[in-house]
Amino acid sequence: MARRRLTTLPERRPPTFxxxxxxxxxxxxxxxxxxxxxxxxxxxxxxxxxxxxxxxESWLLDLPARLYRREDLPEVPPELxxxxxxLWEAAxxxxxxxxxxxxxxxxxxxxxxxxxxxxxxxxQAEAEAEAEAARAELAGQRAIAAALEAGLAGERxxxxxxxxxxxQAEAEAARxxxxLETERGHAAERIAFLEERIEKDNAWYLQRIAxxxxxxxxxAARELARRDDELGRLRLDAARRDTELRALRxxxxxxxxxxxxxxxxxxxxxxxxxxxTAALAALAGEAAAMRREAADPARRAAKPIPKxxxxxxxx
Length: 315
Fold this sequence. Notes:
The chain is an all-alpha fold. The protein is built from 8 helices and no strands. The chain has helices at 15-31, 37-44, 49-68, 78-137, 142-256, 263-295, 297-302, 308-314. The longest helix is centred in the middle third of the chain and has 115 residues, at 142-256. The relative contact order is 0.06.
């Protein structure tokens, strides 16, 4: 039997391959999960499972690059965008590494089985060629041909066993792919849980800020009322001091006409008058400062409130 010469042709992707990739993208956008072979076959209406599996693998290889280029994270604070992106990229990279390792191991096993199958097929072809040549040359060598046929039967059994192992490897690869899809689904659920928790925390912080601002406004209003009361008391005290000052001046005018005998009393009264005048000027300065603080809420909030006892001690 003449051997058939194999010719390598350039790989051309059939239309079903592109349809399967588009179906993978559509299913991923709708469900957020990696699409399976059954879902893609049902979507495109073509039951070519080997081609669909190749399309899914090609789509998975391009998926991380497309996900990493996404910059839109709606309803997430800017300071948390980096954290979300880090969690998502870590989960996707870990899943991709595990999938690549398992696929490489399975591919190596498939290639080894395929090499054994090719060797068996080559041996079978050689045996058949030798048997045919033997039949054409010597009819008496039919016993040898029968032995060769028996050997070929054993090779066929080997081929069948190898085929069974290949099918078993494909089933194992499908199981690993399903496990990987489940892990990716768990990662997506974890990210959704974190997003919901951060949104609730943000709402709680905003409410606390609003309450603290309301409390600050109320406290400022109460403090302004206290300052107004204090300013009124200071004004009354200043009026009383003015009355005392006029009385002292009148008393000083009377003392000047009495002579040298009352000089010491006059000096003491003048010293007391100067002391009270200085105290009155200090009170007037404090009143002016309080008026300025009452007119400027930001300055009043930054400066500590003086105690009443200190002002009374200064008077």
